[in-house]
Design goal:
Layout lengths: L15 H5 L10 H15 L3 E6 L2 H10 L4 E3 L1 H9 L11 H23 L11 E4 L7 H13 L4 E5 L12 E3 L2 E3 L1 E2 L3 H18 L4 E6 L4 E2 L8 H14 L3 E4 L7 H11 L6 E5 L6 H7 L5 H6 L2 E6 L2 H20 L1 H13 L9 H4 L2 H12 L2
Parallel strand pairs: 1-2, 1-12, 2-3, 3-4, 4-8, 7-9, 8-10, 10-11, 11-12
Antiparallel strand pairs: 5-6
Helix pairs in contact: 3-5, 6-7, 7-8, 8-9, 12-13
């Protein structure tokens, strides 16, 4: 009996080559392993890895295009930009999971548009993201669950602080008018228990997530006890180091080198390879220090062991100042302000990444994708 010949249609062929030109090849390195590698390379070279907080796909895409090696998901920026909340632990715990997904869209979008626009010559690195998980939004069980979800959506690292989740506040002392208070801490064993929960989440998911242990003891106090200080923060750090966390981040409240030096020397006396983290926070007066000629440098911090350096709300402050300036002008002069914006964009060299807004979002690439997939 004759074998039937399968019908052949040119419309049924999948356009493999055409599609491959539209999407940057995915990276094979797991984000957590990439972040740890970058940190170890910086530590071993005696230098630092620094970045700023992203708060959406837009900021993540810009930072990816600019070449930042890592991104940071800032809880402060998440609270303010998504909900107009202060940073007092009142946004929903899984909003950070949603932010990680949004950041990934920005990273992938930037990589894909650059790949397409350069005809495959510009293969951007995918910066791994470490993110804020506050004080765990509860006890070890809640911490384990949130860490697991963050790992599942691709977070490379997480940081957890030793504040009381039911009474937490911003990393720096509350200062509204003349009202100040110490941050409310939990007993050290409770903090260590949550750090163990993160390690457990890494074990359960098979992803050795980068763990950043944050201590607020310098400006914090246990209930009904005297405030801590640098010595208490060092004691926190030594136990966290014994647990094997990747980075230990103490929150400081001034721009002097004295506290970081005391902390760094106190920890690295016993754990010489322990990496430390430093928050380059605009809540501290770095501008005044620069005007006074006393501004510390990134390298000075790196020399003390602060390998990971990040600014929690650099993007927020930068975008806010630029938006306020532009919008005030637009409110008062309308179209004239838009014309001035375009003139300023044309004069800038190199041109702003967002000047060609359709190209920034990859519109040409999407039009080609539509044609390829529809067979037009």
């Amino acid at each position: 009996m004759a074998t039937a010949t399968r019908p052949v249609s040119p419309h049924a062929a999948y356009p493999t080559d055409a599609v491959s030109r539209l999407f940057a090849p995915p990276e094979s390195e797991v984000p957590a392993l990439k972040l740890r590698r970058l940190l170890h390379e910086a530590r071993d070279k005696g230098t630092f890895l620094h970045t700023a907080g992203a708060y959406d796909a837009f900021t993540s895409a810009i930072m990816t295009k600019l070449g930042f090696k890592a991104l940071y998901g800032s809880g402060w920026q998440l609270a303010a930009t998504k909900s107009m909340y202060p940073d007092i632990g009142i946004y929903q715990s899984h909003q950070m999971v949603e932010l990680v997904l949004e950041m990934r869209k920005g990273i992938e979008g930037a990589r894909n548009t650059s790949w397409y626009d350069s005809e495959g010559k510009d293969r951007l690195e995918a910066p791994p993201a470490f993110v804020d998980m506050e004080a765990g939004f509860g006890g070890p069980t809640q911490t384990f669950t949130l860490a697991t979800e963050l790992i599942r959506v691709g977070a490379a690292g997480v940081h957890l602080e030793n504040q009381d989740p039911s009474n937490r506040t911003c990393g720096h002392i509350v200062n509204v008018g003349k009202q100040k208070r110490n941050k409310v801490l939990v007993p050290r064993k409770d903090w260590l228990g949550k750090l163990k929960a993160i390690k457990g989440a890494g074990q359960a998911t098979g992803v050795d997530v980068v763990i950043i242990a944050r201590t607020d003891s310098i400006d914090g106090a246990l209930p009904d006890q005297e405030p801590g200080g640098v010595k208490m923060a060092i004691d926190d750090a030594l136990e966290a180091a014994e647990l094997g966390v990747d980075v230990i981040w103490p929150e400081f409240n001034n721009v002097d080198l004295e506290q970081p030096q005391e902390f760094g020397e106190g920890v690295r006396k016993y754990y010489p390879n322990q990496m430390l983290g430093f928050n380059l926070s605009p809540s501290l007066y770095f501008g005044k220090a620069k005007q006074a000629g006393t501004l510390i440098t990134n390298q000075q911090l790196a020399d003390l062991g602060f390998t990971l350096q990040f600014s929690t709300l650099f993007n927020f402050r930068t975008a806010g100042m630029a938006l306020e300036k532009g919008l005030r002008k637009f409110l008062n002069s309308g179209l004239d302000a838009l014309a001035d914006l375009q003139i300023e964009e044309d004069a800038q060299n190199p041109a702003p990444i967002t000047k060609m807004h359709q190209k920034f979002a990859g519109m040409n690439r999407w039009l080609v994708l539509e044609q390829v997939l529809s067979g037009k």
